[in-house]
Amino acid sequence: MPQKLTSLEERAIRLLLKHQKKGLLQSELWHKLGVTSREGSRIAIKLEKKGMIKRVKEFAKDRWTRRLIPLIREVTIEHIRGAPCLSCEYEHICGKEGKIKPENCTKLENWVLESYRSSSKKSSKK
Ligand code: SF4
After folding, report:
1. Does the beta carbon of 91 sit less than 6 angstroms from any atom of ligand 1?
2. Ligand 1 pocket member 85 (CB < 6 A)
3. Residues pairing with 70 in the sheet
4. CB atoms within 10 A of CB 90
5. Last residue of a domain, which of 50, 70, 90?
6. How far apart are CA 66 and CA 76, in angstroms?
7. What residues make up the domain containing 45?
């Protein structure tokens, strides 16, 4: 079931998702949100209880503080763009218990292999 967030919690998580790898120091987040440290701490504790972030103790700017690291990821449809299932004529009979099973589908297999090849080419050019 999706977690209900207050608008401030939602803004906080959106800001943190922009810093997925390293997260933000809590003071940086409070500043960006325009809230007091007390209000900000409450938000961080709530997000941690909901399993959306972790609060990691860190010594920064001459004092102990917390770094807030998101545990969730932003989901985009980029990785399934062009997948054959999205416009497949057999979609209604395809599935784990269906007449057609995805694990035996050559259209899907070819698309996965082609996607893998093109992503390998892109990463070798970097
Ligand atoms: S797995 Fe194959 S048959 Fe099933 S919906 Fe995808 S493309 Fe169609």
Report:
1. yes
2. yes
3. 53
4. 13
5. 70
6. 29
7. 7-70
